[in-house]
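Annex B, item 7. Sequence and C-alpha cells for protein A, then protein B.
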Amino acid sequence: MATAHVNIGSNIGDRRAQIELAVTRIMERFGRSVRRSGYVDSAPWGYDSPNRFLNLGVALETGDMEPLEILQRLREVEASINPASHRTASGEYADRVIDIDLIAVDDMVLNTPELTLPHPRMHLRAFVLEPLAELAPAWRHPLLHLTARQLRELLD
C-alpha cells in the first residue's frame, strides 16, 4: 500500500480552521484516516507578504491509486475550500486561503506535465521538510538520497 505525503498550508483568515477542514475533507475524499504532523509557522516562500503561513504535513495511505488520481482528489478538496488561484495575473505566488501539495508518493519518481514527484522544490522548503521528517523519518528523497531531516539541515 502506497503512502502519499501531502503538505497543507494557509496564510489568509483562520489558518488552522482551514487546514483542519482540508484534513477532514481529505479523509472523506480518500476514505481513509491520515497521520498528521505538528504545525509549522513560516514566512511566505518565493514572494513577499505580511501574512505568515501555517503548514501541516499528512501521510495518507492510498492503496493502489495512481499519483494523478491522488493529485486530482487533492485538487478537488482544495477547490471545495477555496477555488482562487495561487498565482497573481503575472504568474507570481499569491496569498492563499488553502494550498494542498502532493510532495511524494513513497520513493516514486515521476515527471509529467501535470505532476512531478517528488515535488521539485520540496528540498528548498523547511515548512515541507519538517513535517515530512516527523511523519516519515526513514523516508529518503529518491533522487538526492537524503532523508527529510538531512535535507532540512542543509537549509541552515
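Protein B:
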Amino acid sequence: MKRYNKVELIRTLEQELNYKRFIHTLAVAGTAASLAMCYGASVEKAELAGLLHDCAKCIDVRKMQKICERAGLPVSSFESGSGSLLHSKAGSVLAEEKYGCTDPDILNAIRYHTTGRPGMSLLEKIIFVADYIEPGRFTAKNLPEIRKMAFEDIDETLMKILYDTLVYLNSTGNTVDPMTQMTYDYYTQLYAEKNTYD
C-alpha cells in the first residue's frame, strides 16, 4: 500500500467534517489500529480506513446520491434519501477519488462499515466494530461487554453488534436495512455450520 501523509489527511478531514464527527473519526481510527494490533492485521490500513470511514458523512444527502450514481454504485429505494446509509457508499467513492485510496479492502471497509456484508474481510470487521465501540459511543446497549469481547473474538463481537442492532431497530419500529439482516443471517448460518463440525 502506498504510504499516506497522516497529518495532512487529518488536517483536511478537520476542515471537511463537523467537530463532533471529526472527534469520532479520530477515535475510530485509534480503535481500529488497536484492533488491528490485536488480530495481526495491518495497523496502517486499519488507521487509514478509520480516518476515511465517515469522509462523506457531512455532505448533503442529494450529493451523496449523485456521487454513488456517478460511480455506478446501485442505490436501492431503501437507501435513497438516507444519509445514514448512503454516506458509506459515497465515502468509498470519495476515499478513492478525493483522497487517493485505491486499496480495495480499505474501500470495502468504508463502504460496508454501517451495514456489514456477507463474507467480510478482517479489515472490514475491524472497521465495523471500531465504529460501534469507539470511546465516544455511549448509547448502545451492552457496550462494556462488547468492548471487552472485541479484543477477544472479533467474529463473536460482529454477531453481537448485528444482533443488538436488529433488536433495537425492530423495537423502535424502524425498517431494517436488508443488507444488515442479510449479513446477520449469513454469519448465523456460517457459525452454525462451523459449530456443527467442531
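Comment on protein B: The CA atoms of residues 1 and 103 lie 7 Å apart.
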